[in-house]
Write a structure and sequence with these properties.
By secondary structure, the protein is of the alpha/beta class. It folds into 2 domains: about 180 residues, Glycogen Phosphorylase B (Rossmann fold), CATH 3.40.50; about 150 residues, Glycogen Phosphorylase B (Rossmann fold, 3-Layer(aba) Sandwich), CATH 3.40.50.2000. It is about 45% helix and about 15% strand. Bound molecules: uridine-diphosphate-N-acetylglucosamine and uridine-5'-diphosphate.
């Protein structure tokens, strides 16, 4: 049997690496299709190197565009490559457009799919990712959930619970794998940062696409930088808009290119505070015990909030929330982590896939 993994955007890579590695150790034949949704070296190549991912067997080079343009290019490119390789199973990750397109292509070709990170819900359909999650979950044959709340969401959408497996979080497998490489942060040295600093990442369309939203966010972020030096590895999506809104390098603001995986996590681990609108960063700060303020009205990862490391804030509330985190002092100790965030999600997923490929009955 052949398993293909469809990857395209930055957050896909740390989720896939542990699954690919674990399938390899079970001797499963597999290959990676890179859609090319993300293509800058710092958004893609560096992750293959840092995470030890094998070279893709194909890169579709779809690039950027409107949702319709990008999804259309993904559908056409993926249909061709899937027909060429006739996989027995296609594995997709997270909630990006590459994930959605792969699911649609496979559903129409009658090729079974597995979704890693199933059942996350923000209940906010203005987020493109929420639409991708709902469609992806509804069409997947195997669904791998990272947290228990996902199980009830999937059940309430009528998805057969026998398809769903709670396996933990493979992104956290990657984080644990990277820990020995994390200290000391070369970025701290390169930038000449003081020991106490904060990190921000911002790229959600609702935050960076309109000049008004960007301005409100930048004003809030600059207020944070009056309290603590702030490093902002900037996602290409927000680069221009946030700069136009005034987010530029100054003595207390370090606007830099996106960082590689190990560099970024090193920086985060040493931070007194993280400000973000990323999905994955909410989870990584939970495991690293770094206080995180998420500038969003909702999160599909509520476990990071109930755990205690993450808090949702509006731009207007960000400066005061940051000030409280900074005066409360030390990082939150990583006590009990969410269930099965133990570095073994990849092997769990691989075992389910391997038995599925051998036709075993996985019903409980
Ligand atoms: C995508 C995902 C989002 C995820 C994010 C992670 C969708 C709908 N969105 O958003 O869920 O959180 O990736 O990073 O799939 N660009 C570059 N170089 C690149 C890639 C993008 O310059 O290598 C720029 C282009 O101007 C492009 C813009 O970023 O138009 C947006 O890229 P796109 O992949 O469409 O969406 P993201 O905002 O990256
Ligand atoms: N990340 C990185 N360098 C950066 C910013 C983020 O390596 O400059 C990593 C981060 O550690 C996490 C992943 O990228 O593993 C998250 O991707 P992103 O925030 O782009 O997407 P989201 O999780 O919001 O979909």
């Amino acid at each position: 049997p052949l398993v293909l993994h469809v990857l395209g955007a930055r957050p896909n890579f740390p989720k896939a690496a542990p699954v690919v590695r674990a399938l390899d150790s079970l001797g499963v034949r597999q290959g990676i299709i890179h859609t090319g949704q993300h293509y800058d070296a710092l958004m893609s190549d560096v992750f293959f190197a840092d995470l030890g991912l094998p070279e893709p067997i194909a890169n579709l080079g779809v690039g950027s565009g409107t949702h319709a343009q990008q999804t259309a290019a993904l559908l056409i490119g993926l249909e061709g490559v899937v027909l060429e390789h006739t996989p027995d199973l296609v594995v997709v990750y997270g909630d990006v457009n590459s994930t959605l397109a792969a699911i649609l292509v496979c559903a129409k070709l009658g090729i079974p799919t597995a979704h890693v990170e199933a059942g996350l819900r923000s209940f906010d359909r203005t987020m493109p990712e929420e639409v991708n999650r709902i469609v992806t979950d509804s069409l997947s044959e195997l669904l791998f959930a990272t947290s228990p709340d996902a199980l009830s969401y999937l059940a309430s959408e009528g998805i057969d619970p026998r398809k769903v497996h709670l396996v933990g979080n493979p992104m956290i497998d990657s984080l644990f794998g990277a820990l020995p490489a994390l200290d000391p942060s070369p970025v701290v040295k390169r930038l000449g940062l003081p020991p106490r600093y904060a990190v921000a990442t911002l790229h959600r369309p609702a935050n960076v696409d309109s000049p008004e939203a960007a301005r409100e966010l930048v004003d809030a972020v600059l207020e944070v930088s009056e309290q603590i030096p702030l490093v902002i590895p900037i996602h290409p999506r927000g680069r221009t808009r946030l700069a136009e809104a005034g987010l530029v390098t100054s003595p207390s603001v370090y606007v830099i290119d996106p960082l590689g995986y190990v560099d970024f996590l090193s920086l985060v681990r040493g931070a007194a505070l993280v400000v973000t609108d990323s999905g994955g960063v909410q989870e990584e700060t939970t495991v690293l015990g770094v206080p995180c303020l998420t500038v969003r009205p909702n999160t599909e990862r509520p476990i990071t909030v109930s755990h205690g490391t993450n808090r949702l804030v509006t731009p207007a509330l960000l400066p005061a929330a940051a000030s409280k985190v900074l005066s409360d002092g030390a990082a939150i100790p990583a006590e009990e982590l969410p269930v099965m965030w133990d570095g073994q999600a990849g092997p769990r997923i691989a075992r389910v896939i391997a038995s599925w490929l051998h036709g075993d009955n996985l019903a409980p």
